[in-house]
Amino acid sequence: MMKAVQTYAVDGEGRGKNHCVCDMCISRLSSMCSVLKPNELHKLNEITDHISIDAKNIVCEEGDNAEFLYNIVDGCVRISKMLADGRRQIIGFLVPGDFFGLSSSNGYGYSAETITDVQLCRMPREKLFKKFAEFPALGNKVLDMTKIELHGAQNHMLLLGRKMAKEKLCSFILTMSEKTGQIDNMPEDQVYLPMSRSDIADYLGLTIETVSRQFTILVKDKLIALEDNIHVRILEKERLRQISSGE
Amino acid sequence: MMKAVQTYAVDGEGRGKNHCVCDMCISRLSSMCSVLKPNELHKLNEITDHISIDAKNIVCEEGDNAEFLYNIVDGCVRISKMLADGRRQIIGFLVPGDFFGLSSSNGYGYSAETITDVQLCRMPREKLFKKFAEFPALGNKVLDMTKIELHGAQNHMLLLGRKMAKEKLCSFILTMSEKTGQIDNMPEDQVYLPMSRSDIADYLGLTIETVSRQFTILVKDKLIALEDNIHVRILEKERLRQISSGE
DNA sequence: CGTGCATTTGACCACCTTCAATAAAGGTGG
DNA sequence: CCACCTTTATTGAAGGTGGTCAAATGCACG
Question: Is pLDDT of B219 > 60?
């Protein structure tokens, strides 16, 4: 699979010292950068590459030397782990404001692939960590975001270990509803699912057939409506919530 | 369920300023305290209560106001989440050096219960976070430990979503083997499992019957031997590893 | 319009669960 | 110390949820 990396904006050098590409960033307020003052942001930008990658490309692979940390500016990324025989578990769908690449060892703990075209900020891990001393708020923010990610992982363990297929899909639709609500200004009952049925299955610990069947059931029960395979309309939100939480 | 809380050592006050209970702590080097110098450690101890709790008691419940963070000094704690109808997912077994109580919101994200008798250090969350400014290494250490916890959670998502019962149990035995290896000086092939079959089942996303059956199969295949229900001897470590990773 | 891929639908099957009975372990009180 | 009871673990039989295999449908793209 080929990787299309290209700069979509040059670094701060050679531009007026009071402006940089970050000032206009659409994910600025939802990312770790939100805690930085403008001049601090410019300093962080000095160690940052801004890259674009086409849909369906590998950004990094499990085990690779974890050189970079990535902020998602635009688009959707999946992170996943695999067993030796190819079974895959998607451990997260990431949207603008999210980051990935934090590792507890020298290698990445998961692979990251683009689902849509994406724009990323890429910063060398070591250099970023050194900035924590200079900007303590940044380190605290990364800790906060990691805590939120851990919390999400724990909820997902509950889903994978104890929920039925129907409950899993209802949970998923509601989770994605919150995520897309954050990025776009779409009506609240409208959910955007850029990932394939195969991705959803590997996220929920199911097969594509089971995911497809459960979608059909939810539609027949008039809890949701499918505009197409990528756009879902929520018809009975409260009922979805009840099913997803085992009530 | 009653909670037995009692102080097993008094605070630093009223003792020689160059000594405190932490100096002798058996989990000192494996906990977040490991990054603190002796005098820093004494300052952290000023905001810390040292408590003992008997086996099978609740320490905190999901949704409770997350006032405290707990370090485990001795014993084993399980943390878990529940669905409305009582289905339970254990999201971790914690041993000395581990901490719990970090929350991404005001309430705890999970319940914590003691499996064995335990000794805990309890510190007010707010006061601890203020120490991060004074001791940056402490904040960095908490981030490091949270990263490790997240990494473990991601591995467990792979287990819950994609592994078969046999693979789950092999993974579990190996994971517990590493954990008990860290705390005790037992022979490497000896694994200590203080939790019940019910706990193991709720950790692996199975039923107690399936866990029991898989234990029986592993014994018949001579991959492990059961001394009693709590002590397991690993006979074929490499084979266990292969099974657990889907080879 | 045909090719290729993703998704849906159907039939059958297997792993794990559920239900039930038995066995073993642990705790309590006489 | 042992009888009694409760709890926990094991084992067996039956059943169901979701998986596997296969075919059909839909959709994008050249």
Answer: yes
| Residue-wise DSSP of B75-108 | S-EEEEEE-TTS-EEEEEEE-TT-EE---SSSB-
Provide the sign of the torsion angle of the four alpha carbons A51, A52, A55, A56, taken in this order: negative
Strand C reaches within 7 A of the B207 CB: yes
Residue with token string 């014994």: B219
Q: What's the token pair of residue B31?
A: 């906990």
What are the tens digits of pLDDT across the range A194-242?
Answer: 999 999 999 999 999 999 999 999 999 999 999 999 999 999 999 999 9
Calpha distance B11→B48 (Å, rounded): 7
Residues ≥6 apart with Cβ < 8 Å to B171: B159, B163, B244
Rounded distance in angstroms from the CA atom of residue A194 to the C1' atom of nucleotide D30 = 24
pLDDT (average), residues A155-180? 96
Contacts of B156 in chain A (CB under 8 A): 157
Cα A6 to chain centroid distance, Å, stands at: 21
Confidence of residue A127 (pLDDT cuts 50, 70, 90): very high
Q: Are residues B148 and B185 in the same domain?
A: no
Q: Per the domain annotation, does A1 fall within a domain?
A: no
Host domain of residue B192: 164-244
Q: Give me the sheet containing B77-82, strands edge to edge.
A: B58-60, B111-114, B77-82, B88-94
Total domains, chain A: 2
This model's pTM is above 0.85: yes
- A150 and A65, same domain (yes or no): yes
Q: How confident is the model at residue A24 (pLDDT cuts 50, 70, 90)?
A: confident
Identify whether residues A179 and A145 lie together within a single domain: no
**Beta carbons of A146 and B151 less than 8 Å apart:** no
Residue A89 lies in a domain: yes
Q: What is the pLDDT of residues B140-160, one digit of tens each?
A: 999 999 999 999 999 999 999
> Domain check: are A167 and A140 in the same one?
no
**Residue A217 sits in the same domain as residue A193:** yes
Q: Using a pLDDT cut of 70, give the percent of chain A over it.
A: 90
Question: Per-residue pLDDT averaged across B99-128, rounded?
Answer: 96
Domain boundary among B131, B157, B183: B157
Q: What is the CATH number of the domain that holds B73?
A: 2.60.120.10
Q: What is the pLDDT of residue B182?
A: 60
Whether B166 CB is under 7 Å from strand C: yes
Bridge partner residues of A233 (DSSP): A190, A225
List residues, Cβ < 7 Å, touching strand D.
Answer: A 164-166, 205-207, 209-210, 228; B 196-198, 208-209, 211-213, 215-216, 226, 229
